[in-house]
Design a protein that fits this description.
The chain has 197 residues and is an alpha+beta fold. It is 35% helix and 25% strand. It is elongated and about 60 Å long.
Length: 197
């Protein structure tokens, strides 16, 4: 995501070149607007995001904060011509901060690190439908699920609660989805518990 179409094309070509050399496969989506990026990520979550910081309207840090409201896991690489936003970038859990003009060697290094993230053993996760779209949650962070008036509340290890507003996800479907990847059961008609807790 970058408001400069020349940089977008450069990144797209570099990603395709990297994929060809390393044997990876990428589907590259380009955006000139952070709002469009967020809308598409909610519908079909991306594996990673590369985003400019200095953009008209909301800057990349503001977009990153909105992103973290519904997806705390997707890796974000910031691209910028100014080092002034480095601390802000890490406040939204950026994994890299690449300076423009982007050197192919630096981009390759960042991509190598991202690919190693994806090839390490994966923690099982589930996609939970929420009002803003879908959010990925690691199975081992779910303590229990509570059902109140047609809404499921996923209680997580960090104290946060994710609610499935306006969703067709039932407690029975959630139990099936969670039991495939972890040790969950339903001891009561309104609760699913994770036996790990």
């Amino acid at each position: 995501c970058d408001d400069d179409k020349v940089i977008l094309k450069f990144l797209e070509l570099q990603l395709i070149k990297y994929a060809t050399i390393t044997g990876n496969q990428f589907q590259v989506n380009t955006y000139t607007s952070g709002t469009d990026l967020l809308a598409n990520h909610k519908a079909n979550p991306f594996s990673f995001i590369m985003m400019d910081i200095m953009m008209p309207g909301e800057n990349g840090i503001e977009i990153g904060r909105r992103l973290r409201e519904f997806d705390t896991n997707v890796p974000v690489v910031y691209l910028t011509s100014s080092p002034d936003y480095a601390l802000d970038a890490y406040s939204v859990k950026a994994v890299y901060y690449l300076m423009k003009p982007i050197k192919p060697a630096d981009l390759t290094y960042a991509l190598d690190q991202l690919m190693s993230f994806f090839t390490t053993p994966k923690r099982p996760c589930v996609c939970i439908p929420v009002a803003e779209g879908n959010t990925k949650v690691f199975i081992d962070t779910i303590i229990f699920v509570e059902h109140i008036q047609h809404v499921l509340y996923f209680h997580l290890q960090n104290g946060s609660i994710i609610a499935t507003a306006n969703s067709s996800l039932t407690l029975a479907k959630a139990l099936w989805m969670l039991s495939e990847k972890g040790d969950f059961s339903q001891p009561h008609r309104a609760y699913i518990i994770n036996w790990a807790y």
